[in-house]
Write a structure and sequence with these properties.
5 helices; disordered N terminus; Alpha-Beta Plaits; 176 residues; 4-stranded antiparallel sheet; alpha+beta
C-alpha cells in the first residue's frame, strides 16, 4: 500500500521524518527552531493535531493526526518548507562549522531523484503507522518522549527541551 493511502484517515499516526543520510542537523538550536515554528504553523493554520513530538539529532518523531484525513498533505508541505528554510539557513550561516559538508551531502542526495532541483533534505518516506486504539497511542507517546533517554542524550525525558515531555515545550500538544 502506498504511503499516500496510509496517512489519509482521521486516525492518529506515528510518523518519523528522517534527514537524508541520517545527518545530525538538529544539533543546532537554529534548525530546531525552524522545525518548531513550522509545526506550530501547521497546528494553527493546517489543522495538525500533535499528541507527542521529539526532535532528535537526525530525525523527528510525531504522534499526530489531521481531522479530515489530510495528514499526508500537511506533512508534504511541512517537509517542503522546512527543507528549503533549513538549507537556506545553513547556506547563510556565519557560524555553521559544517556548512560545506552539509551542503555537499544535500546536493549528493538531491542528485538521486529527478524531482529535486538541487538539494534533498528529508528522506522520501514518513513511515506512517496508523494508531488504532488509545492504548497504542499511549505506547507511541511514551516511545517518542523517551527517545532522548534511550539515545543517552539526557537522563530524564523532561530534561530534553525539544520534546513534548519537557515543561519548556513551545508546542501545544493534545492532552497537555
Amino acid at each position: 500500500m502506498s504511503e499516500l493511502r496510509k496517512s489519509n484517515t482521521d486516525y492518529a499516526y506515528f510518523i518519523t521524518l528522517t534527514v537524508v543520510g541520517w545527518v545530525d542537523v538538529f544539533t543546532r538550536k537554529e534548525y530546531c527552531d525552524i522545525i518548531l515554528k513550522n509545526l506550530n504553523y501547521c497546528q494553527v493554520n493546517k489543522g495538525l493535531e500533535i499528541y507527542a513530538y521529539v526532535i532528535m539529532p537526525s530525525h523527528l518523531h510525531l504522534v499526530a493526526r489531521h481531522q479530515g484525513g489530510k495528514l499526508n498533505e500537511v506533512l508534504r508541505d511541512f517537509k517542503s518548507f522546512t527543507s528549503k528554510a533549513i538549507i537556506k539557513s545553513i547556506e547563510e550561516s556565519t557560524c555553521e562549522s559544517r556548512k560545506e559538508w552539509l551542503i555537499y551531502l544535500f546536493k549528493y542526495f538531491g542528485k538521486k531523484y529527478k524531482q529535486n532541483k538541487v538539494y534533498m533534505f528529508w528522506q522520501k518516506t514518513n513511515h506512517p503507522i496508523e494508531l488504532f486504539s488509545s492504548k497504542v497511542i499511549e505506547q507511541k507517546i511514551e516511545y517518542v518522549e523517551n527517545n532522548p533517554v534511550a539515545a543517552c542524550i539526557v537522563d530524564s525525558s523532561e530534561n530534553f527541551i525539544y520534546s513534548s515531555a519537557s515543561k519548556f515545550s513551545v508546542l501545544t500538544v493534545i492532552g497537555a
